[in-house]
Specification:
With 171 residues, the chain is α+β, with helices and mostly antiparallel strands. It has helices at 32-52, 71-77, 81-86, 95-111, 156-170, and strands at 4-13, 20-29, 56-60, 66-69, 115-122, 128-139, 145-154.
């Protein structure tokens, strides 16, 4: 193992202004153990951030198979982490939304472009909820396509309010 130089973001309080500022500090990594520890710390920070989010976050591999979901997804589906990874992302979508969603995602994935959709998904109680999903391609450390990372936000109340307004205006 040869030495590797990494840059770490460091946040410190400026003694003059009192503001928290970001600095970059150069560190020389001299062992495989140190590199693995840095990777493990980075992974733990990502999972803490993702699991703390009040909305669904997921990640796929380059064949669009799910490789990560956060706790919000597990709460929505009431599946375990392993159970959720074993089913395709769109398995609970509303049948009326399936064709449109399949075509939008197929085109975007084929071109490796970002896509945004609004569709209904069945939750663990069997109730369909409107989710706005935004997903974009991700890259590995060499810059190669590695899959997608996305999030979904429940927009059911917004969609219901829009429908109520349309009905009210139609009368």
């Amino acid at each position: 193992f040869q030495q590797t130089i990494v840059w770490r973001d460091v946040y410190e309080k400026n003694p003059t202004t009192g503001a928290v500022e970001r600095f970059q500090r150069r560190e020389v990594i001299g062992s495989v153990h140190q590199m693995r520890q840095i990777e493990a710390d980075s992974e733990r920070r990502f999972r803490d951030l993702a699991d703390g989010a009040p909305f669904v976050i997921y990640m796929t591999d380059d064949h669009f198979r799910t490789v990560f979901v956060n706790k919000a997804m597990l709460a929505f589906t009431q599946r375990t982490f392993d159970e959720q990874l074993a089913v395709p992302l769109g398995v609970n979508r509303h049948p009326d939304d399936a064709d449109d969603l399949r075509e939008i995602s197929r085109q975007a994935i084929g071109k490796r472009e970002r896509f945004t959709t609004e569709q209904r998904y069945r939750n663990a109680e069997g109730v369909y909820r409107w989710l706005m999903t935004d997903a974009h391609p991700r890259q590995d450390h060499d810059g190669n396509y590695a899959g997608y990372i996305g999030y979904s936000i429940d927009i059911t109340e917004r969609r219901n309010a829009e429908e109520a307004l349309r009905q009210s205006e139609a009368r």
